[in-house]
Design a protein that fits this description.
single chain, alpha/beta, five-stranded parallel sheet
Length: 218
């Protein structure tokens, strides 16, 4: 199983990625993890990426594709792989295609913006343990305090509505075009075209998981 997971930030891609990884015994390919590992190992690509990052620049698509190709040669990719958060742009998608990095499925998790904002803005965290609550969906026993320690809960800055809205704007402006890109490619019938599947990302986690598995079995 080789797939790309698409969806807005906060759509629940990470949660579903874990289910898919376990079912198909495939690794999740994170470009952030790859960059850190390559820099730590001092590889040629890692050193090139570090130079760019140290100067405050964005790592080029050529370097990213090189890292991805190296990563896919590892033994744990024998059964396939899952991309979450890559590609982010049409240029990266084209570069993947040109490099012969094939995928069987593109799975979109579709969640309306208002649901994502409600989901993220309602989160409250306990800094000491990492426990997460939600004021509506999973409230603490006593408002504003951790069930176990009684310590105050916080709202992380990146969970606040205004921050979430900014992230969604970036997604709609930069990444959402990939939905059309992959949908059109899937419908083209061209050799190597992936299957495109869209599932609703609203509802119980298990229900979304079952929808994902059903979509990937078609």
């Amino acid at each position: 199983m080789r797939l790309i997971l698409l969806g807005a930030p906060g759509a629940g891609k990470g949660t579903q990625a874990n289910f898919i990884k376990e079912k198909y015994n495939i690794p999740q390919i994170s470009t952030g993890d790859m960059l850190r590992a390559a820099i730590k190992a001092g590889t040629e690509l890692g050193l090139a990426a570090k130079k760019v990052m140290d100067a405050g620049g964005l790592v080029s698509d050529d370097i990213m594709i090189g890292l991805v190709k190296n990563r896919l040669q590892d033994a744990d990719c024998a059964n396939g792989y899952l991309f979450d958060g890559f590609p982010r742009t049409i240029a990266q998608a084209d570069a993947m295609k040109d490099a012969g990095i094939n995928v069987d499925y593109v799975l979109e998790i579709d969640v309306p913006d208002e649901s994502i904002i409600e989901r993220m803005d309602g989160r409250r965290s306990h800094p000491g343990s990492g426990r997460v609550y939600h004021i509506k969906f999973n409230p603490p026993k006593v408002e504003g305090v951790d069930d176990v320690t009684g310590e105050a809960l916080i709202q992380r800055d990146d969970d606040k509505a205004e921050t979430v809205k900014k992230r969604l704007d970036v997604y709609h402006n930069q990444t959402k075009v990939l939905l059309g890109y992959y949908n059109d490619w899937a419908q083209s019938g061209l050799p190597g075209a992936p299957k495109y599947r869209r599932i609703a990302g609203v509802g119980p986690v298990e229900q979304i998981r079952d929808s994902a598995f059903a979509a990937l079995a078609e």
